[in-house]
């Protein structure tokens, strides 16, 4: 009997210890796991990847910058950081506009662009002087302006984004490629528009093939061009390949030899990129760059097609904040009036 009583006491003790162990695990280990999960969420390594978007803010066009930013911010949950590039005299205006509007919640940094880096590299061209504005060349200098990111999105100011910018950021670049662009022959739905307005979509429309320096490149004049108004760029490859230096070289050669001009297809900022990135760029999903909306005040895309588009680009003379222009309602959906009243839309009844 004494032995049986001893065994029962031992079993009871083991049972008590087991219950205590279970209770300890519930009380201590579960909260510990929650704490670790919270710590992971707060750890910089686990934070959502930042998507840097570079866009310019030029005098007289800041409403475009604001509309583009508004459209991006409203259509994504991604962690977007806007780099707003301007000249010294324009930055205070755009900063005030953002901070005094519903965009005050965005993450942004202003970057001053020094136009002196372009000295001696731009050939004066009276036919379209707006294409010679310094900020048109910001895209050439991305690694110098934006230094802490491996991958960057650059957008022209005359765009609106209807899709999630994360999708564009996830564009894959092939090994050795520093950038992805939209090919001008990539979307059959736009071909009729291109033909009807006389828009060029080959290298012949941008480069002067009468010049020996252009013929020496060995690029067929019928090669499909691309549009650098939307760029997904790899900063490491860009720097390693010294692409800014290459672009500057062709700018300087144009000053000396007039190899391309704004009287051709796309002005003076596109042509050097067509040369330097020929055969060395990846492609963007065509629906992420529906363009030519600013090429004619009369020709329009179908509403269904525009609703399916992820990004709309009013490249050309006819901008949606001016008159005449097309599909202005889509652009105005994202426009935020200037609190200072300096920027005003031009409309037929204004």
From TrEMBL:
Subcellular location as annotated: Membrane
Q: Which residues form the signal peptide?
A: 1-21
Kindly give the Pfam families that the UniProt entry links to this protein: Glyco_transf_8
Name of the featured protein: Glycosyltransferase 8 domain-containing protein 2
One CC-aspect GO term: membrane
Spell out the family assignment given in the record's similarity comment. Belongs to the glycosyltransferase 8 family.
- Which keywords describe this protein according to UniProt? Glycoprotein, Glycosyltransferase, Membrane, Signal, Signal-anchor, Transferase, Transmembrane, Transmembrane helix
Q: Which domain of life is it from?
A: Eukaryota
Task: Tell me the membrane topology, using the record's own terms.
Answer: Single-pass type II membrane protein
Report the main location listed first in the record: membrane
Give yes or no: UniProt keyword Glycosyltransferase. Answer: yes
State a single Gene Ontology molecular function: UDP-glycosyltransferase activity
